[in-house]
């Protein structure tokens, strides 16, 4: 019996760690990932202003797992009918599989934007944003115009980080950071009061917000806006949505509450669109991916048990996923906004909540030294020394 998990992001690592506990020891478990590094995506924006943060948000996949075999390769195709995976290193067969390949930045056919903007999906992207920032500051004599396209949580955090960087480098008086959003609110799809608090915090940080600004293209000087004046820019960052991985043809297939793509294959995390037991689509996020992973792992383990005990009903009910978020948190430079239940927090309580999210996750992976390092960055305070890893 061979169980294969594709992808070493939040969902993939969580599925594997759970299956290591749930599966019998004689069931082979393989994690296929294109890199041995697991990156905390929700902290990538910090690298723009603090490159050393990269040391705290990159975790070794082999160290984060136990008995699973780690196979470093690129997934080139999935033949679900034959339960086989085409890898850059050859073919891999599976009895049960979980697709957790994450998502890529969606440019929505806007070739001009794709050719000129920097996305934020990898450490290299964050470092490129930082390098471009300093290049345009040095090469531009007059006002510097930085534009971030897409006001989801990622775009909010990038805009906040860049605004803070302008203040730290004493160029805020000649720099404009503009956040564009095609819909009518910042953080669309999240609670209204949360979005309102984010907007206020961004404005307090000096970020110019333009909602109802649907981007239709870009050239070397301006971003074109449908039914609006073009926006001039010197640096362009794009966080305007996600698409499925190339392996899935750029699609994010829809799965129901049991997370099944077919009888032997499951999907969770950003690679798929999850409809939970309420019939609602679950927001693509780290917290959702980790919660979906519990259901996917439980269902794989259940099917393995049925196979091994020769249970007659192979199509019996499986666990179904219902998304219950404890809240949301987003950083805006050195500030933050959080929701806990119906409450919206700003200031020190929100900053503490933001710091806790990443640090707790690292600690769960056994990375206490990195957790403390991230706490220092988030809280900008000395929280003690540790040599633990």
Automatic annotation (TrEMBL):
Signal peptide: none
Start and end residues of each FAD/NAD(P)-binding domain: 1-289
A Pfam family of this chain: Pyr_redox_2
Alphabetically ordered keywords of this record: FAD, Flavoprotein, Oxidoreductase
InterPro entries: FAD/NAD-bd_sf, FAD/NAD-binding_dom, NADH-Q_oxidoreductase
Origin superkingdom: Archaea
Gene3D superfamilies: 3.50.50.100
Swiss-Prot/TrEMBL cofactor(s): FAD
UniProt GO molecular function: NAD(P)H dehydrogenase (quinone) activity
GO BP terms: aerobic electron transport chain
Family: Belongs to the NADH dehydrogenase family.
Name of the featured protein: FAD-dependent pyridine nucleotide-disulfide oxidoreductase
